[in-house]
Amino acid sequence: MKARLERYFKFRELGANWRTEILAGSTTFVTMAYIIFVNPAILHETGMPLAAVIAATCLCAAFGSVLMGVFARYPIALAPGMGLNAYFTYTVVKGMGVPWQTALGAVFLSGVAFLLLTAVGVRRMIVSAIPFELYAAVAVGIGLFIALIGLRNAGIIMASPSTLVTMGNLRNPETLLALAGLLLIASLLARQVRGAILLGMLGTTALGAIFGLVHWQPQPYSFHDITATALHLDIRGALGVGLAEIVFVFLFVDLFDNIGTLVAVGKQARLFDEMHQIPRINRILYADAAATIAGSLAGTSTVTSYIESAAGVVAGGRTGVTAIVTGLLFFVSMFIAPVAGAIPNAATAPALIVVGSLMMAHAAEIPWSDPVVAISAFLIIVTIPLTFSIANGLAIGFTAYALLKIARGEFRSVSWLVYALTILFIARFVYLSV
Fold this sequence. Notes:
This protein is mainly α. The strands form two sheets. Strands 1-4 form a two-stranded antiparallel sheet. Strands 2-3 form a two-stranded antiparallel ribbon. A hairpin with a 3-residue loop joins strand 2 (157-160) and strand 3 (164-167). The chain has 20 helices and four strands. The chain is globular and about 60 Å long. The chain folds into two domains: 2-134 and 218-340, no CATH class; 366-434, no CATH class.
C-alpha cells in the first residue's frame, strides 16, 4: 500500500519522502491557520452565527485541501479567500443590503460557473489571454482593501466628514492593543518565525485578557453548530438579475487569486514543464471549483488556493501529500475551534493589516515603465480600496487597459477575451448609472 501511494504521488520523480511531506503540510497549516479566526470574524459581521462559520471554515478548508492533494496531487492548500470574504461581508451584505443567505447562493452559482467554464476550457483560455501584470495589480488592490478594513477595525483610522478619513483615537485602550498586536506580528515575521500571524493573534489576545480588554463569554460548541448555516443558501434569490454582477465578481476575483497562487507556488516548487505550463492544471481548477461549491453549502464565502502554500513548498513539500496533511489538520481544528471566540477585533485587525502588507509584494511584478500596464494597474490598485469595491477596481482597470492598447495602435495584440470583458464592464457601469 505504501509503495502504491508513493507511485501515485510520484515520490521518486519529485524526490519526496513521507517525513518531509508531513512536515511541509504542517508548516502550511501553521502559516494559514489564522483564517480559522479571521474568516469567522469577518463573516460574523453579516449576522452569520460565529460558531457555525468557524465549523464551516474548518470543514471546507479540510475538504478543499484534501481534494487538491488527492485529485490534483499538488502541494496547494485551500480555504476561504481573504478579500473575497471582505467583499462578501462589506460590499455585498452590508453595502448592498443583500441577505447572507442570498450571498451564499451567489457563491454557489459562481462555483457552478467555475465547473462549467473549466469543463469547456474557458478558464484555461483566460489564464493565457489576460496579462499577468494585471493579476498582480488585483492582488495588490485587494491587499490595500484588506488593510483598510483592518485599520478601521483597529480604530487607527476613522471616517471624517471633511477629509473622508482621519486618524483615530490612539489613546483608546483597544486601539493601543491593536497597535501592540501589529508590532508583535511584524516582529515575529521579521524574525522569520513560522506561524507568526497566528502566534501574534494569540499573543495579542493574551495581552488583552491581562488588561481586561477581552470580553468573551464561552459558549457550548459542537460541530452540530454548522447546521445554523449549512444548506441555508438562497439560490433562487441569487438568480435575480441584480445579483449577476456579484456572481461575476466572485467568479472573476477567485480566478485571479487562483492564477496568482498557481504561478507563485508553481515557480517555487518547480512545477512548470518545459513548455512553461503546469501539468494537470484542469484538475487544480476543478478542485478549486468543487471546494467553492462545498463552502457555499457549508456556510462560508468563496474557497480559493492559498499563497501560504509556498511556505510548505519551502519546507520541502512537493506532492499532494502536503496538501492532504494540511487538510487533515484543518479537520482536527474543528474540535478545538471554540477558542476562536476569544479573539477580539484588536487581535484580528492587525492580522488583516499584515496580510494586506504581504500582498504588496505583487507590485514588484508590474512593469511600471510601460504606461499602458502601469496606468491600468494603478487604477486597479487605487480604486479597489477607495471605492470600497473590488468590482469597481477590476472594471476600471481592465477597461483602461483595453482602451489604452487601442489608443497605442496595438489593438491586435490583445486577446478578444479582454475586449469581451471590457464590453461587459462598460455595460456594468451603464447598468449601475441607470
